[in-house]
Amino acid sequence: APPPEWDWRSKGAVTKVKDQGMCGSCWAFSVTGNVEGQWFLKEGTLLSLSEQELLDCDKVDKACLGGLPSNAYSAIMTLGGLETEDDYSYQGHLQACSFSAKKARVYINDSMELSQNEQKLAAWLAKKGPISVAINAFGMQFYRHGISHPLRPLCSPWLIDHAVLLVGYGNRSGIPFWAIKNSWGTDWGEEGYYYLHRGSGACGVNTMASSAVVN
Amino acid sequence: APPRQAADAQAREAAYPELLGPARFALEMYNRGRAAGRRAALGAVRGRVRRAGHGSLFSLKATLEEPPCNDPTVCQLPVSKKTLLCSFEVLDELGKHMLLRRDCGPVDTKVTGAGKPKSDFTRGSALISSLFQPYSDDRNETLSSVLPLLNKDPLPQDFSVKMASVFKEFVTTYNRTYETKEEAEWRMSVFSNNMVRAQKIQALDRGTAQYGITKFSDLTEEEFRTIYLNPLLRENRGKKMRLAKSISDH
């Protein structure tokens, strides 16, 4: 059974909260957050990685109009890796691809889909690092703090429209939660984080969990 | 009489000519930002009015006729002409209108098959529409306990002044600038409507979350979805990935 709680932020595996700006690029932030964690666990170095490279060079996805983590992992493998945020900084709109393989600091070997069982997801997270997930963003426009637990029909797992990163889990006053890193800046939510009920499949959090593989 | 009946006693059916001004304002707000050929038209309208501060609060029910859309640059799939049933709350104070609430939904003319098993999704959407159905005058307890600003009778004397000061604080906090006075008025209407939406979401949350004013509070739901969300995620899963072994399998 997984530990009762876990938080990769306290273990140095999570970079600061970023801000996607007026652009539907959450998918890129969810994937770079996962790869940052995988690289940290494999190499012991935490690097802030480039989302702009994915916006500009992942030709399968649609930059600010949306994308899918599974396509993004493929694009990273095809391109030959990811540059750092400093080397390929975020602009928040599509540009011509200027990726340079010589500058790539991180590579991945594969990607995989994770279990839809939240108990198994917690065990995987505690052992293997932050997880890329996709959720229904119902109510997040007005979320300020606390553990969100919307009625299921209002936050249907069929209407997934946002990608984020699971960085930890635990209980607050006996209520189980996922600690979720969002990409809307630190002036939203709990310093950029969103807390969602764990164990009830809330908002489809368990339906599209995935991770890169770094051998 | 209990407060609610007293409130309703003060609310009275409004004559059609009296409704036209608020109804046209609500339609103008609904059509804002739309090209000429894409604007909805006002169908039938009826409603009630009650005293509110220095003015009147109109609770309207109106049908809107949405024009057909065949232009793929505007609507991804062709949309035939459709009728919406809308509920609006318009505050008319000192000659100024403010749209406090807007709930619109398709007029459901289909009769679902009796006993037809509802998928989780269908049942959910039915529940959503019942939870968020056009606002009726006989407020149910949930909303009346949740929407203090709109349910005090009479409305606080300077309701729109209160709302204006909250909005002003929002503008300062999030360093908003609007190009024109009309834009600022429009954004305040959106902000006010969003306050009501946030309170509804709050009332229906089973966790400990707090909802309220955020940096997105002056965006309509459509704007927020279009700019910040990623509907591609629901359309397909993209490239199939292999399934990871569970930790216990390792």
Please give a quick description of this structure.
The complex is a heterodimer of chains A (215) and B (250). With 215 residues, chain A is α+β, with helices and mostly antiparallel strands.
Question: What do you see in this structure?
Answer:
The complex is a heterodimer of chains A (215) and B (250). In chain A, 21% of the residues lie in helices and 20% in strands. Chain A contains four helices and nine strands; from the N terminus they run βαααβαβββββββ. The longest helix of chain A has 18 residues, at 26-43. With 250 residues, chain B is an alpha+beta fold. Helices cover 38% and strands 21% of the residues of chain B. In chain B, strands 1-2-3-4-5 form a five-stranded antiparallel beta sheet. In chain B, a hairpin with a 2-residue loop joins β2 and β3. At the A-B interface, α3, β2, α4, β4 and β5 of A face α3, α7, β6, α8 and α9 of B. β2 (110-113) of chain A pairs parallel with β7 (242-243) of chain B.
